[in-house]
Every structure is written in C-alpha cells, then in structure tokens.
Amino acid sequence: MEVNCEGCAGCCLDWRPLAPADLDHERRGPYRPLDDTYNLAPVTADEVRTFLDAGYAAALTPRLFRTDDGPHATVGGVELAAVGDRPAFLVGLRKVPKPVAPFGTEPAWLDTCAFLDPRTLQCRIHDTDAYPETCRTYPGSNLALGVESECERVEAVHGGERLLDGDPPDDATPAFTPGALGTRVFAHPDPDRVADAVERLAAGEPTPADRAEFVAVAAASAPGTAAVSDERYERAKARARGTTSWVDGAIAEWVERADERGPGGA
Question: Is 147 helix (H, G, I), strand (E, B) or coil?
Fold first, then answer.
C-alpha cells in the first residue's frame, strides 16, 4: 500500500460540498449513522483512554446507528442498533469547521478533523502516541475488504493519483470483527440516561456532557463483552469533563469564527 497524501486530507475532512454528487457510502445498508459526520475515524477503547490522559476529550464524539432490521433499542424515540437492550455506538474523531483548501481548490469552510492543521493539511498528532490506528493504517482495511477508499473517491472527482499502490498491507485487518465489542464497538448500559442526548445527537446538537457520557462508557468498557466498570466510568467521566488541553481552545476558536462568518460568509 502506498498513498499520496500531499494537499489532500480527503479522509480527514467533509469534502461533500466539493463533490458534484452526494457521497453517501456511510448511509447504505441496515445501519445508518444518527449523526451527519462524514467519514468518521473510529478509535479503540485504549485510544479513548490515551486521549483522556492527554486532555483531548473535546476531540472525541460518539456515533450511534439507526436501524430497521436486527437487534435494536428504542431510545429517545429513535430505533437504534443495539447489543441486547443496550444501544451500540462507536467513538470517533470530531470534525469542526475550518477554512481549508484541499485538492488544489480555493479555501472553503469545511468540517475538518479537530487535529488537522488547516494550512498545511497535516495532522498535529501524527508523530505522537495518540495517533489512532485507524488513521495510521488507512486505507488498509478498505483494501483488505475490497471497499472503495477515500483516496479513490478523491481521484474520481478531483483527478490526480492518491492511491499509488492498492495492495493491502500484510497486517491489514477489518476494523469491525466479532471481537470488536468492548474495543471498537461499545454498548451503553443505561438507555434512559442518554435518551435526551440521543435526541440532541440526531439534531446535530450534542453538548459536551453528551459526548463525555459516551466517551466515559467507552473508556470503561471491557474487551469482548458489553460490561462497563462503574468505577472506571466515573473516573473517565470526571476526566472528560474536567481535563482540558490546547484542543479545547482550538475547537472553540474555530467554532466561534465559523459562527461569526454566518451562512454564506467569507
């Protein structure tokens, strides 16, 4: 596998406004994301804990799934994919509006990974221990499964060569296997506690407390099971709500700037 990432970052931002057709690959099949985040990069329970230790909780967001088929739980009036009676969810990297110019286009405000430098289109944590496996190995899992990658979608719309070698690496494995429960896929133990949060997530208006709730459950989850440690949950939630870093200030600044420019602003 070899990719040309210079001037791209297609896997790190929502470039749907720069595409002539709707990119809806995440919304096909029986499980449809409750949120509208494009190309969410999921993280593992261990990575969630690493992010909490670094004060990066603000960069994490949950993803739940609507479903019309299979195990589900009705939470906040929404039928969600579930493990038993517990709503299932992922935790991924949050996107916030930033002025970026990918693929040689003119600068535009696009939802962009919290860690992406909008000027260089480089990841600020690329060379740190916090850099997620999903990002480090992308698009290895896609290639192993024969699924179209973001590199190929960018090539199709904006030209150029992004995927230089499409042979999957030897260590490429699907991200979601039967053993993903408790490591990449989590189950919230108290649906009633998150009913209001689910409504806000569906409306695209989650609060910091909503995000912290799901992040804490993920951090307190045990591999291979839906079990959640109450003690670890309380510690993780306190850390998610009480520990900050440069990420919080950066996100707040970008959101404020985006709000100030308003719809259609420059």
Answer: coil
pLDDT band at 30 (very low <50, low <70, confident <90, very high): confident
Compute how many other C-beta atoms are within 10 angstroms of the C-beta atom of residue 119.
11
Q: CA 206, 207, 208 angle in degrees (round to 5)?
A: 125
The conformation of residue 118, written as its DSSP 8-state character, comes to: T
Q: Which two tokens stand for residue 104?
A: 């040689």
User: According to the model, what pLDDT value does residue 70 have?
Assistant: 84
Residue 253: closest CA among 98, 133, 123? 98
Looking up tokens 């040309």, which residue turns up?
4
Closest CA to 132 of 40, 16, 6, 24: 40
In this prediction, residue 266 carries a pLDDT of 46
For 97, what's the count of Cα atoms within 13 Å in the CB-facing half-sphere? 16
Within 8 A by CB and 6+ apart from 190, the residues are none
Which helix (H) or strand (E) segment is 110 a member of?
strand 108-113
Q: What's the chain's Rg over C-alpha atoms?
A: 18
Residue with tokens 């038993």: 84
pLDDT digits (tens, 9 = 90+) for 204-235: 999 999 999 999 999 999 999 999 999 999 99
What mean pLDDT comes out for the span 125-152? 94
Q: What type of residue sits at position 241?
A: R
- 36-61 burial string, b = 16+ CB within 10 Å, else e? ebbbbbbbbbebbbbbbebbbbbbbb
Task: List the one residue out of 59, 51, 66, 43 whose CA is nearest residue 135.
Answer: 43
Dig out the tokens for 126 from the structure: 């690329």
Q: What is the pLDDT of residues 78-87, one digit of tens each?
A: 999 999 999 9
pTM of the model: 0.94
